[in-house]
Amino acid sequence: MHERALRHLVLFSFKADANPGHVHAIEQAFCALPDEISGIVEFEWGTNVSPEGLAQGFTHCFLVTFYSEEDRDAYLPHPAHQSFVEKLQPILDKVLVIDYWAR
Question: What's the DSSP call for residue 91?
Fold first, then answer.
């Protein structure tokens, strides 16, 4: 592991009427970003399987890792990321984003 890792945690809740095909397309589009944005050094994602019932409607979790704030800051306005956000908006209900330095 790199000495410092900046984690960008993203949770999505989709609209109740979101087409499963559109949700799948969003999953694929997010997964394509590491190949398009060089500052992303690690990427993983999954869907909620917790039995606790505390997800507050969030179903999808994505963890994007950068080695610097500069790389994260370049990712946010990057055209590939902005294009992804445009595709996401019509079916997105809620989003939660937290960035933290891994310890």
Answer: G
What is the rounded CA–CA span in Å between residue 67 and residue 91? 31
Q: What is the pLDDT along the chain (103 residues), one digit of tens a residue?
A: 568 999 999 999 999 999 999 999 999 999 999 999 999 999 999 999 999 999 999 999 999 999 999 999 999 999 999 999 999 999 999 999 999 999 9
For residues 85 and 29, the answer to whether their CB atoms sit within 8 Å is no
* Interatomic CA distance for residues 33 and 43, integer angstroms: 9
Q: In what order do the strands lie in the sheet with 6-14?
A: 42-47, 60-66, 6-14, 92-101
Helix (H) or strand (E) holding 6: strand 6-14
